[in-house]
Amino acid sequence: MGLGMKASAALGRWVRGGASNPRAALMKRAQAAKAERDWRGAAEMYRQALELRDAFGPRVQLGHMLKEAGELEAAETEYVRALAMKPTDADLHLQMGHFYFVKGDPDESVRFYRKAVELAPGDPGLLEALRTGERRAADAPFAQSLETAMKAMAVGRWREAEAGFQILEAAGRRDYLNLHGHALKEQGRLDEAIRLYRDYASHVAKEGGAAVYEAEVQLAQALQLVGRFSEAAVRYSTARDLKMAREGWTGSVDELLEEIRNCLKRVHPSLDAGFIR
């Protein structure tokens, strides 16, 4: 006896639904495992889903899961397969740049970051990733000195940190001038610290990005400590302009404006700094 129309429709819905869509079910289980940080479990679900039907997104996700699980050779294989499917995908090149850094190949990492920027020129996130990657590649020969300096900074051993940063500075690695400045500032050597902060601000100004804003704020704070309030106000003003340009506003609480007003009040005690906006 045949099925009635309603029964046939219900059966069709069941067939088209999750009960007969094992790939969708596997993808859902993969996402759940990923949320639980079960990287190997998620990888297995993505692998089974790909056996049913290959696709770019799950292939990339399988690479991610294997990378997180520490299975770097297998992850590389999956990334390369995904790249063959979409060789002009900028985000995949970015992710492969991250992968090769984790794998310990900073030069290959930079190659992928550069290609990502070529594919999506002007993307600020990709440009920042490229700058970071290039810095890491240049730092590779000095990894031991950098690690020593950073560990010393973390526990307040300022002279030891200073010695490590001196090695980097002597080698032309100017990306750590600000940290060298911090180590000197904590020792009370403020004039030397200001020189390094100023040099760092000039260095990062050529590249742009968030580092320029941070450099201006650090320099302004150091100038305040030695009572050079006019110069500090100028640097805070520059930082405020940079923040406005990058974010479109200065925040619900304009802390930089308050610092500018405080500096100007120290220079001109009778000044009504409230008019400054």
Automatic annotation (TrEMBL):
A Pfam family hit: TPR_11
UniProt signal peptide: none
Annotated SUPFAM superfamilies: TPR-like
InterPro entries xrefs: TPR-like_helical_dom_sf, TPR_rpt
Coiled-coil zones: none
Superkingdom assignment: Bacteria
Chain positions of TPR repeats: 56-89, 90-123
The entry's keywords: TPR repeat, Transferase
The keyword Transferase is assigned to this record: yes
GO molecular function list: transferase activity
Protein name: Predicted O-linked N-acetylglucosamine transferase, SPINDLY family
Species name: Brevundimonas diminuta
Source species taxonomy: Bacteria, Pseudomonadati, Pseudomonadota, Alphaproteobacteria, Caulobacterales
